[in-house]
């Protein structure tokens, strides 16, 4: 009976342990299933969020592309308008120059004729600048080396001077058109002055034009090898008044010296 009771008790405990073991296994399986379901939900949420972000990114890229296309068309349209404006200004300046030439041909007074011719040269100087703006891709900037070469050639042709030794030292970035036109008018006045006074009956005329930029300061120096100081320095002359007006407009400084020729030095910040 004792053996039978012992075996019954052992069998009962064995059954109980097996039952608890199976319950524990079921709990572990249930916990693993719940964890898998949570991971599946998290992955589903992550996929949904990724899809939303990708959709927003695609919409944003499409919007930016449309905006870029619109800005590109607007820029091209503005470029065409600026080019057309420069072309019209160039044509208008040429018309004004032609009218002044016709008026000059009808004048008998030498001083009045000289004044008209000088005004025509000033207009031609601005026409050279606008011609360069129209012919190049730079819409509002001027290559000063090309501009000075074209301008000086035009002035010497106007005065019929061919045998001039020209020295150019141009080391400057392209300038805005509004600043370049002031420098161009000053160069026109100073070269015209040299043609009228310094190079008159000169056996070997030499003209030097230096234009450089350092530490945001622009320095322009125009030197001739005239044999004497010229009357252009008189402050009451129209050319000198015009130069002083442009110097003040640019907040610059102009100096003059005579040493084997006249040297005009202009500096602006």
Shape: rod-shaped
- The first-to-last residue Cα distance is 122 Å
Assigned CATH architecture of the largest domain? 2-Layer Sandwich
Helix content: 55-70%
Question: Which ranges are low-confidence, i.e. pLDDT below 50, for 5 or more consecutive residues?
Answer: none
CATH class wording of the largest domain: Alpha Beta
What is the string of helix and strand elements?
HHEHEEHEEHEE
CA radius of gyration is 43 Å
Largest sheet: 5 strands, mixed
CATH topology of the largest domain: Heat Shock Protein 90
The named CATH superfamily of the largest domain = Histidine kinase-like ATPase, C-terminal domain
Oligomer kind? single chain
Helix and strand content put the structural class at alpha+beta
Instruction: Report strand order across the widest sheet.
Output: 2-4-5-7-6
Count structural domains. 2
Number of helices: 5
* Beta-strand residue fraction: 15-25%
Itemize the secondary structure elements and their pairings:
Layout: H1 2-105, H2 110-135, E1 141-142, H3 144-159, E2 165-171, E3 175-176, H4 177-198, E4 206-214, E5 217-224, H5 238-249, E6 253-258, E7 262-268
Parallel strand pairs: 2-4
Antiparallel strand pairs: 1-3, 4-5, 5-7, 6-7
Keywords: ATP-binding, Kinase, Membrane, Nucleotide-binding, Phosphoprotein, Transferase, Transmembrane, Transmembrane helix
EC number: 2.7.13.3
Domain Histidine kinase/HSP90-like ATPase: 180-268
